[in-house]
């Protein structure tokens, strides 16, 4: 089949496509995604890239407990998760002291907006806290409904489709707290 069972974590199919024997087989690739998806495992890595399949239902994987679990953990120690990616980017930024970006792409309804919200929520919870920062964070998280109210529309593919591209710039101060969020629409 070209798919071998991982010995780590969730054990359904393979968690990282780098381990797929049939690395040039689209069928094996899709089979693995499907196998994991039917077990509600929506995330799979290709090395440090993360593939996400929209579950179109609420999953119990975005709790504070899950966030705590992924904080500061080695990328490949736990099952693939968007929190692992967010955490990895954050810590790489700290250790390399330079800018990093997360590029989220996919067709309409793929779950890009939801993914960006999960990342923001993760940073809101995992970064150091103070009264001022909490205010900035709340504003940051609450900016989404405002932008969606102006820029989203119901389409055939997505009942809440963003009709604009989104660029978010999260700036951290030297105490590595979230500082500012700049948004621009095109
Ligand atoms: N991780 C998730 N868990 C549960 N539901 C999700 C998840 N991701 C997406 N969805 C569901 O799918 C819908 C569409 O997702 P989203 O709006 O993020 O897509 P998009 O890729 O941003 O689409 P567009 O390009 O049209 O704006 C969401 O409103 C939500 O109902």
TrEMBL record:
Any one GO molecular function term: actin filament binding
InterPro entries xrefs: Kinesin_motor_dom_sf, Myosin_head_motor_dom-like, P-loop_NTPase
Phylogenetic classification of the source organism: Eukaryota, Metazoa, Chordata, Craniata, Vertebrata
Biological process annotations from GO: actin filament organization; actin filament-based movement; endocytosis; system development
Family the entry assigns: Belongs to the TRAFAC class myosin-kinesin ATPase superfamily. Myosin family.
SMART domains per the UniProt record, alphabetical: MYSc
Pfam families in UniProt: Myosin_head
Keywords, in A-Z order: Actin-binding, ATP-binding, Motor protein, Myosin, Nucleotide-binding
Protein name: Myosin IHa
Domain Myosin motor: 13-186
Positions annotated to bind ATP: 106-113
GO cellular component: cytoplasm; microvillus; myosin complex; plasma membrane
């Amino acid at each position: 089949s070209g798919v071998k069972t991982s010995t780590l974590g969730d054990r359904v199919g393979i968690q990282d496509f780098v381990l797929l024997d049939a690395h040039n087989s689209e069928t094996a690739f899709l089979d693995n995604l499907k196998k994991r998806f039917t077990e509600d495992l929506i995330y799979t890595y290709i090395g440090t890239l993360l593939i996400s399949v929209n579950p179109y239902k609420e999953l119990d994987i975005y709790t504070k407990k899950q966030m705590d679990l992924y904080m500061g953990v080695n990328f490949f120690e736990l099952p693939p998760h968007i929190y692992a990616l967010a955490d990895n980017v954050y810590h790489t930024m700290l250790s390399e002291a330079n800018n990093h970006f997360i590029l989220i792409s996919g067709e309409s309804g793929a779950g890009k907006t939801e993914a960006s919200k999960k990342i923001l929520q993760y940073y809101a919870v995992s970064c150091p806290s103070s009264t001022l920062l909490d205010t900035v964070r709340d504003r940051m998280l609450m900016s989404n409904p405002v932008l969606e109210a102006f820029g989203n529309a119901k389409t055939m593919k997505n009942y809440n489709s963003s009709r604009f591209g989104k660029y978010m710039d999260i700036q951290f101060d030297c105490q590595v707290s979230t500082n500012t969020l700049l948004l621009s629409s095109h």
